[in-house]
Structure formats: C-alpha cells, structure tokens
Amino acid sequence: MRERTGWQFTDDRGQLAARDERPQRVLAYIQAGATLWDHGIRPAGLFGSGHDDPAAPDAAKTGSLPLDEIAYAGAGPTLDVDALLRGAPDLVVAVSYGGGQVYGLDPETAKHLEGHVPVVVIDVGQARTLAEIGERFAQLARSLGAEEPAAATRELDAARNRLRALNAGGDGPTVLALSPAGQEQAHLARPRMWPELRVLSELGVNLVEPAEGPGANWSTTAYTEAAGLRPAVVLADIRSNATPLDELRSNAGWTAVAGAARVVPWNPEPVCSAHAHARFLELVADALEN
User: Closest by alpha carbon to 91, among 5, 8, 25?
Assistant: First the structure.
C-alpha cells in the first residue's frame, strides 16, 4: 500500500493550504510558474493577469518554461473557476502585491476557486526584498519536494560581485528603467518601488530617480523629458502590456531616449529564482561594461 504523505504550507496571507498527499498538478500564475520551474517543478498549467493575452502567455514573463508543453488556462475575463479547474489541478500558486488580493483573478473567482482546490499566495509586492520573495518561493518548492540547484546560487553570487565591482567608484553610468506607453510617453520607474531595481541600487548601480509627482510606482512623462535625463543604459519593459520596442523604431522621441544608450530588456514581474536573477544582473553588467 502506498504511504500517504500529508502536505501543508502557510502562505503570505497566513492561510494554511493542506492536502493528504503532496500536490502533483500545480496551476500557477505565469511569474510563479516560471519561478517554480527553475526549482525543478513542472507546472501542469499557467494563467495570466488582466494585462495578458487570453490566448497565450506573455513570453516576457515565462523565463525558461517550455510553453509548448504546458497548458494555458487564459487571462482576464476568460478566467472563471471552470477554466482554472479544467486541468484538474491539486494546487494553485498565485501572487499578490499586498493586502492578500490574488493578482490576476476576480475576487469572487478566487473565493470560489478556494472552495475546490488549495490556493497558495506569495506576496511579491514592494514591501519585500527580492531575496525575501525568492526565499518564499524556495520554501514552497522544498515543501513540494524540489530545490533550485546550488550552482544557481553560485551564479547569482558571481553576478552580484561583478556588478558591485563595476560600480565600486560610486559614480557609474546612469541607468533608467521605463515602460513605453504609446508613441508619446513613457512610464519611468521609481526604483525604490521595485524589488529588483532596489537590488541594483544596493549593488551601486546609479539608477535615475524620476521627479516627484503623481504615481506611486511610475512617473509618466514625454519621451523628450526622459531623454533629458541622459541615461547611459535603459531598462525597457518588454511585457505585452508595454508598447513593443519594434513599434518605436521610427519614433523620434524614443530615438532620443535610446539613441545614445544601451537598451536592456526588463520584465517588471521577474522570475524570482537565483538563476533568473543572475541572468538579469549579467545583462545589466554587460551593458554597463560596454
């Protein structure tokens, strides 16, 4: 007779998820699924947010996931309980940006979903450091019987040390993080509000701080004003809800921003694994070095 192994995990809402046996079929928000994949867990399915295409996951968020092998439940208004349960998941892993609200799901949908299957919510909001977020995903992965390879931690340590050395003088090239928002304007990221950008600041990267004003996470401005900040490196949001950079090739305002800068692709919903974070830090280091 197969031995039953009880499983439980307390999520970032303080709610206990439990099953008689360790879950095997995990349905995850794209960011969470990509993070768990780097820890050795293959999600049975993925779902997106209201910003995503209901027909296909946003490739910018998916990290190393083999998308052709994983079912996609949809996103936005298409996500009802039936769609989420179609693949018979025995665990749902979602994220929150604070307050316990399940990101990407209508509150009523999330409530009814928990009547059918355990839901674990990981807080990825600005109140936490990226290391804290990563550790919570690591704890969840370990509870599911998996762990990110030790080589990934060494890779991350090397990337952090490289960036720290590049910026040891304290007055390195300026770096601007932004999200293109059409042909006329861009959202400039406030570094302190984004865990991944705070890491760059801690490693000495000279991140541009937009002017104070409305917008907690972003400062929205014309491209000409962004160009006036004279960044040497631009971290450009490549999610599907940002204006694709290809559509800005002939835009004079965008050319003024990026013409004299190295442009690095940036996903503001990062995969929260050591491997993925190291890869991002290396991209930034390459841009600063060149």
Answer: 25
pTM above 0.90, yes or no: yes
Closest CA to 234 of 205, 213, 202: 205
Could you read off the pLDDT of 146-176 as tens digits, one per residue? 999 999 999 999 999 999 999 987 788 999 9
Helices 130-143/274-289 angle, 10° precision = 150
> What pLDDT is attached to residue 213?
81
What's the average model confidence in pLDDT over 256-285? 96
Question: CB neighbours (10 Å) of residue 145?
Answer: 13
Q: Is residue 2 one of the residues assigned to a domain?
A: no
Please check whether residues 137 and 196 belong to one and the same domain: no
- Are 34 and 109 in the same domain? yes
CA distance 97 to 117: 22
287, 264 Cβ separation under 8 angstroms: yes
Q: Provide the angle, in degrees to the nearest 10, between the axes of the packed helices 274-289 and 30-38.
A: 90
Which CATH number belongs to the domain containing residue 19 in this structure? 3.40.50.1980
Domain extent at residue 211:
150-289
DSSP string across the chain? -PPP--EEEE-TTSPEEEESS----EEEEHHHHHHHHHTT---SEEE--TTS-TTS--GGG-TT--GGGSEE---GGG--HHHHHTT--SEEEEEESSTTPPTTS-HHHHHHHTTTS-EEEEE-STTS-HHHHHHHHHHHHHHTT----HHHHHHHHHHHHHHHHHTTTS---EEEEEEE-SSSEEEEE-GGG-HHHHHHHHTT-EE--PPS-S-SSEEEEEHHHHHTT--SEEEEE-STTSPPGGGGTT-HHHHHHHTTSEEEEE-SS---SHHHHHHHHHHHHHHHH-
